[in-house]
Design a protein that fits this description.
By secondary structure, this protein is mostly helical. 66% of the residues lie in helices and 0% in strands. The chain is built from five helices and no strands. The longest helix has 27 residues, at 103-129. The structure holds zinc ion.
Length: 130
Amino acid sequence: MICQKCGAENGNNEYCHNCGSPLNAAQQSYQQQPGGQYPPPQPNGQYPPYQQQASQGSATAPFVLGIISIIAGLLSPIVGIILAVIGLILGIKAKNAGVQNKTTASIVLSSCGIGISVISWIIATMVILS
Ligand SMILES: [Zn+2]
């Protein structure tokens, strides 16, 4: 057995006769290295849930557009209708893509945005014409 500290040959002694450092400790450190190579293939199998969460997040845009379209429809009906139509299209696309989180809510909100914008437009026109 060769001492890792000074390089002296010590046969089967537990301690180096030249420098006194323990030889078994050096041997144990070599035995621990193969154990440190843990193969990490299983975390790759856990990625599909993360991809589902990412696809569910895609319904956030039409959801927010639906809310904004209702508010914008009261202030500017044209802007409200445009935002509501975009939100409705994105919501239907998300629903067709299998997204369930907030999808129905975004479609309902966008539909309400269209209705409120149309009503707001009619009221604004009546006020102008009166
Ligand atoms: Zn030594």
